[in-house]
Amino acid sequence: HAFDKIRNFSIIAHIDHGKSTLADRLIQFTGGLSDREMSEQVLDSMDIEKERGITIKAQTVSLQYPADDGETYTLNLMDTPGHVDFAYEVSRSLAACEGSLLIVDASQGVEAQTLANVYQALDRDHEIVPVLNKIDLPAAEPDRVREQIEDVIGIDASDAIEASAKSGIGIKDILEAIVKRLPPPQGDFEAPLKAMLVDSYYDVYLGVVVIVRIMDGVLKKGDKIRMIGTKATYDVDRLGTFTPKMIDRQTLEPGEIGFLIASIKEVADTRVGDTITHERKPCDAPLEGFRPAQPVVFCGLFPVDANDFDELRAAMGKLRLNDASFSYEMESSAALGFGFRCGFLGLLHLEIIQERLSREFNLELIATAPSVVYEMGMNNGDEITLHNPADMPDVVKIKEIREPWIKASIMTPDDYLGPILKLCQERRGIQTDLSYVGSRAMVQYDLPLNEVVFDFYDRLKSITQGYASFDYQLADYRAGDLVKMSVLVNDEPVDALSMLVHRSQAEVRGRSMCEKLKDLIPRHMFKIPIQAALGGRVIARETISAMRKDVTAKCYGGDATRKRKLLDKQKAGKKKMRQFGKVEIPQEAFIAALKMD
Ligand code: GTP
């Protein structure tokens, strides 16, 4: 059948090991784009992706490759997101393929992310072709890394391909290996249509573009389709494949990966992992393993200038058009005014959205402490999920609070192991495994996500000078002795600073918060007490003493322009302040106060 000449594969790699560079090489080698079109990395198309050099959304490319056996093959490359926050999307991309290229930087070796993704691919019974990239580097040690792949991952690496995506070494060997070593897809032409919604994105000219993998049946232009999960129906206006340019087709057949356009309004209407079938003659069961991506980290975003609220709302609507995993809901805070409670897949996702809001929409924002989703068992038998510590019910009604835990893997040169263990221990971690590969250690911890959302990455990076790699998976919810800590400035609770903490850490956290606020809040004309409290009980306290002099005092008798300038300067500074009762708190104070050390 036709699909004997198809190979569907994804590329698994740790960040910076060369996935995008290699993908570009494969496209170039098979003639998908001219040299001029190649001048930019094509697969990473969003600005922020380019700037940070990370892949956020999966994309797909169809390559035509005339192999040594005389036949021309269609090689469908699915680019997978490289970051932990997007693990669910990775799993969908992998499910659309039969095999994977495992790219390992031959000068670095296996990293935490390589592991997490390769295990997912093995779970999907993928055939795996290991590629040792960057062999052009003097520091490359292909033999050592080959051994490491066998030891750590447990797959045969004797026929790993030595390559340099940068200088073009080994590209043909990789293409031949894809044809010879990866299995072709399978499917039934006669069966009712069954296709997987692998991904989707919003294009200003085309609307929502859906990426599909056809499992069974044939999809034709003009067909009426149904999404089983959302129950929505659409008429297919356009079909095709990416080379990476869009090439229109009349049909897509089993084993193929391509796009469809069907007047779908929003990306939120398309659920990654959903099953697409014909409205008239549907398949009997949806594809397995569909679950909508759930936000796990929440925080409040408020405009610094209350007049920007409508603009913020519009900007969030625009972002959501292209990112269904980002959620937002209006929220009002006594301290911060009107804003939004936003849900994210993880910390990187949060950072990306925040950055896009400020960069693309020019909005100045205050972000409250990121918080995880808590589950609460109430004394009356009710179950509550809590997205915002400010909404915490009365403690006497709560029987049990459960928090999400993660399974974390950290790989590091062994010199840094000591400080890493200490960090994980401080964050209530439970060590589950520790092993060595040469001079690198791999340590596994169970950690409460709550302890990771603040600044775990930053701390890990700084104590290991960037040499450690970190990856995690959400594991389960566990009961914990958690309490709500409130912060009071001049006896007024600042809701944006309240948080749920483990009882054992409340005092330390409270003390450090008060000390920081003391430095961050400017003096006023009166004395300002700062307190951290659990319920009515104060656990930490600091006081900002009153300011003695009027700032303009030294200008008395001086010239008027100078005085006006000084007042203007103060006014400009004030824009970034928020008023809490009688006290003004600068925006930086929030961000800084929420970082721990
Ligand atoms: P993410 O998109 O963040 O997951 O990274 P990536 O794995 O796609 O890595 P990318 O292709 O962006 O490459 C990272 C860096 O390594 C870039 O600076 C590349 O130029 C460089 N690089 C990639 N392949 C090679 C290679 O074979 N040799 C050398 N010397 N450098 C390479």
Primary descriptors:
alpha+beta, eight-stranded antiparallel β-sheet, 597 residues, binds guanosine-5'-triphosphate, six-stranded mixed β-sheet, single chain, 14 helices
Structure write-up:
This protein has 597 residues and is of the alpha+beta class. The protein has 14 helices and 34 strands. A hairpin with a 2-residue loop joins β25 and β26. It is globular, with a radius of gyration of 27 Å. The site of guanosine-5'-triphosphate (GTP) has 20 residues, from α1. Guanosine-5'-triphosphate binds next to α1. GO terms for molecular function: GTP binding; GTPase activity; guanosine tetraphosphate binding; ribosome binding; translation elongation factor activity. Its EC number is 3.6.5.n1. One of its GO terms (cellular component) is plasma membrane.
